[in-house]
Write a structure and sequence with these properties.
This protein is of the alpha+beta class. It has a single domain, classed as Thiol Ester Dehydrase, Chain A. Helices cover 24% and strands 44% of the residues. The strands form three sheets. It has a six-stranded antiparallel β-sheet with strand order 3-4-8-9-10-7. Strands 1-2 form a two-stranded antiparallel sheet. The radius of gyration is 16 Å and the shape is globular.
Length: 165
C-alpha cells in the first residue's frame, strides 16, 4: 500500500510539472494555468511512510530555482513560502483522497530564512482525514542537519467538485 500511495503522489506531481508554465520576462508576471503549478515544480517526491499516529508522512526534495523572486542574501520571501506550504500538503493528500482540497486555515512559523539554490527537505504529515476535513503539518528542513527552517499547520476542506460559474 505504501508503494501505491507513493506512486499516486508522484504521478500527481509529475502531471503538474508537464503543464505549461512560463515567465513573461517583459512584464515580470507569471503566465500560467494555476499559480500552484509553479511551486509544485520545485518539489521532487522522495518517499511516503505510513504511521500509527497519523495517516502518513510524505517527503519531498525541495529546490528553489535561482531565478525565483528573493529578498536579501538569496533567501525566499515568506509569502512565497506560505504558498509552498499550501501546495506540499495538497499534493500529499492526493495519495489519500482524490477530492479537491481548499485551504481554510493556515498557521506558519519561520525559524530561519530559506536559501535559494540549496537542496532542502519538505515533509508533510497527514494528521487527520475525516469526512470533508483534512489536517496537515508540514516542515521545511535543512537537508544537511535536518534542522527545521519553517513549520506550517494547514487545514483543508475536501470537496467533490468545484462549482462552475
Amino acid at each position: 500500500m505504501q508503494k501505491e500511495l507513493g506512486k499516486i503522489i508522484d504521478q500527481e506531481l509529475q502531471k503538474s510539472k508537464q503543464s505549461e508554465t512560463s515567465l513573461n520576462k517583459d512584464k515580470k508576471q507569471f503566465q500560467m494555468v494555476r499559480f500552484e503549478e509553479y511551486f509544485l515544480k520545485m518539489l521532487e517526491f522522495l518517499d511516503v511512510h505510513l504511521e500509527d499516529d497519523s495517516y502518513g508522512v510524505v517527503y519531498y526534495k525541495v529546490k528553489i530555482p535561482s531565478n525565483f523572486s528573493k529578498i536579501r542574501d538569496s533567501n525566499m520571501r515568506r509569502t512565497q513560502l506560505m504558498t509552498l506550504f499550501e501546495v506540499m500538503p495538497k499534493n500529499a493528500l492526493k495519495g489519500f483522497d482524490e477530492r479537491e482540497a481548499k485551504t481554510f486555515q493556515m498557521k506558519t512559523q519561520f525559524f530561519q530564512d530559506l536559501p535559494i539554490q540549496e537542496d532542502l527537505i519538505g515533509m508533510t504529515r497527514i494528521m487527520q482525514l475525516d469526512g470533508n476535513i483534512a489536517f496537515t503539518e508540514s516542515y521545511i528542513l535543512n537537508s544537511k542537519t535536518n534542522e527545521p527552517l519553517a513549520h506550517g499547520i494547514i487545514s483543508f476542506k475536501l470537496i467533490d467538485q468545484i462549482a462552475k460559474l
